[in-house]
Design brief:
The structure is a homodimer of 140-residue chains. Chain A is mostly helical and 140 residues long. The first copy, chain A, has one domain: Winged helix-like DNA-binding domain superfamily/Winged helix DNA-binding domain (Arc Repressor Mutant, subunit A, Orthogonal Bundle), CATH 1.10.10.10. Chain A is built from 6 helices and 2 strands. In chain A, helix 2 crosses helix 4, helix 2 packs across helix 5 and helix 3 packs across helix 4. The longest helix of chain A has 21 residues. The radius of gyration of chain A is 18 Å and the shape is globular. Chain A starts with a helix and ends with a helix. Chains A and B meet through helix 1, helix 2, helix 5 and helix 6 of A and helix 1, helix 2, helix 5 and helix 6 of B. The structure holds a DNA duplex (30 and 30 nucleotides).
DNA sequence: ACTATATACTTGCATTATACAACTATGTGA
DNA sequence: TCACATAGTTGTATAATGCAAGTATATAGT
C-alpha cells in the first residue's frame, strides 16, 4: 500500500518534536529560553497584548503565560501598561533592552538553523519555510 | 532587507514546537504518550534495540529511556531479550499487543493530521513530508 | 442600587519529562 | 588480577505546564 503523505508528516513531526525539543528545552540562547523568546517575539511583532490573548495565541494556560511574562518583566524585557478602561487588565510592551535581547537571540537562532541547512538548496529552504508557515496557519 | 529562508524556518519551527507540544504533551492518543509512541515505532520499524542505542537515536539521556522502556514493558507492549554475549545488556522487542496498540495509535494520529491537511493539495503534502524527513535527517 | 455572575490575572499545588549523579553488575585490557 | 569501561537502574533536582482556588474588578439582571 502507498503511504498517504499525512502519515509521513505525522511521524516526521513527532520525531522533529523530540529532536528539536531536546535541542531547545531548558536551553537558553543568550538570556532567553524558548517561551521567553516566543513571548518577546509575539509582543514585538504583533504589538502589546494581555496575558489572556497571549495564552490563546500559544494555546497555553493563562497561568503559564502569567508566570512567563512576570519573569520577562523581572528581567526588564517587558513592562506593563495598565488598561485605563479595565482595572483588572494590562498589556505587555517590549522594552528597549527586550528588543535588543530579542534581536541578538534571533540572530543566534538563525545562525544555528542556517548552519543545519547549509547543504540545502535555497529553493528547498524557501519551500520548507513556506510550508511550515502554511502548516502553522492551518494548525491554529 | 530580504529575509533569509532560514529565518522563517527558525521562527516557524519554534512556533510549531509550541503548538504541537501543547497538543501532544501529556496527551495520550489511546494508550500511548509521545515518548511511548516513538519508542514503539522505533523498535517496531528498526528492530529490537537496547536502552543505550535508543537513547542515542532520540538524543535523550539513558535514564530517560530506561524509565520509558520500563513503562512500556510494564504495559506489556515490549519484552526484554537478554543479550547472550553480555550479561549487562538486553534488547527490547515489541509484543503482539504492542504492535496492535502502535497500529491503532498510528491510525488515530494519522487521521488527526490528515484532517488538518485536508485543504492542502496532495503535492504540498508530499513536499512537506519530504522536506520534514530531509530536515530530520539533517538534524541528526 | 444591589447582588450574582463573569472576567483578568495570580498563586499554590501536582504532574511530567527530563538531566545528572551515584550506584550495581558485568565485561575488557594491561 | 586489578583497574577501568560499559549497560542499565534509581535517587534527586529542575522546569514547563495544567488545574484549582483566590483576588480584584466589571457587568447584567432585578
Amino acid at each position: 500500500m502507498t503511504k498517504h503523505p499525512a502519515e509521513t508528516i505525522e511521524l516526521e513531526l513527532t520525531i522533529l518534536m523530540r529532536r528539536f525539543m531536546a535541542a531547545t528545552t531548558n536551553k537558553k540562547v543568550g538570556n532567553l529560553d524558548r517561551s521567553a523568546y516566543l513571548l518577546l517575539h509575539q509582543i514585538s511583532s504583533q504589538g502589546s497584548a494581555g496575558v489572556k490573548a497571549l495564552a490563546e495565541e500559544f494555546h497555553l494556560d493563562i497561568s503559564t503565560i502569567s508566570r512567563q511574562s512576570a519573569a520577562l518583566e523581572q528581567k526588564g524585557y517587558v513592562y506593563r501598561i495598565l488598561d485605563p478602561q479595565d482595572g483588572r487588565a494590562y498589556s505587555l510592551q517590549i522594552t528597549e533592552s527586550g528588543a535588543k535581547e530579542l534581536a541578538s537571540n534571533k540572530q543566534a537562532r538563525f545562525e544555528r538553523v542556517a548552519e543545519l541547512l547549509q547543504e540545502w538548496s535555497l529553493e528547498d529552504q524557501q519551500m520548507f519555510g513556506e510550508l511550515l508557515s502554511k502548516f502553522n496557519r492551518t494548525f491554529i
